């Protein structure tokens, strides 16, 4: 990964990230340094690496990437001893959990393959129309996640804003992918709009049900969809790269990737520090390269989300509130509708302290 000297200084000051794949080149544009150019008063975060694996296809070969868990979840000291005892008690159920995960992933792979067959049938030689349908579908899960989490908030079951921030940033990114495909004419035929919109309608309610039942399963399904999107764009770039370099970039792509406020662009990329990726857009080839790289970042984020409590906004600085406990908002959360209902009848430690 090649970064300019200023970008290296920024990422080294705040986040001790190491480039694991020197072959992967990320374009960097320092025309808009945002708020990251002037060092804030935050202390450097102590970070810990967690081996979360994600498959990232390169232009020449396939390699395995190790994704950082950008901001580890804090564990209160009082819970460390309890978790040791609970780990022994839960060891007997680990076999059942592995079986459940296997079933969930098998169902997701079957559903993803079914969607791919539909797209292959109708869009074998119509790339932009296929991309339009794909982007219409790809943004739906983030709407579903946010809808369920807002419902949980209404009942007091959920108080973790980072998930809402990241999922909204993901939907914002996918929306601009969709706008790019529309500007390229991907939605010109009524049948493509009809198919994409009706698939998105049923996909939304299916994802809401799946996310309420098992967030882990819903996140894995979204990872499968994003992985297919990455592979689709990667093949398209390799096949049409020379022609794409001769065509101008759509105006909406230039505004999104090089515009004034790139906060939301940084927000969905939870495996990297803010301001460390600034794309250059000179032609249509650069646009599709960045869309492909966006899908890879979505894959990493969805992979991290499959471990409960593993997601945190790249712009969060939780360590700065350690000396101000009165300013901290209790982060209530739950893992699915069953767990939410169960916890609503179980008094939390904070409620017990208030009553005592």
Automatic annotation (TrEMBL):
GO terms of biological process kind: alternative respiration; carotenoid biosynthetic process
So which domain of life are we looking at? Eukaryota
Top enzyme class, one word, equals oxidoreductase
What EC number(s) does this enzyme carry? 1.10.3.11
Can you supply one Gene Ontology CC term for this chain's record?
Answer: thylakoid
Which cofactors?
Answer: Fe cation
Q: Where in the cell is it found?
A: Membrane
Recall the GO molecular function terms of this protein's record.
alternative oxidase activity; metal ion binding; superoxide-generating NADPH oxidase activity; ubiquinol:oxygen oxidoreductase activity
**Main location (coarse class):** membrane
What reaction is this protein's catalytic activity?
A: 2 a ubiquinol + O2 = 2 a ubiquinone + 2 H2O
Q: What is this protein called?
A: Ubiquinol oxidase
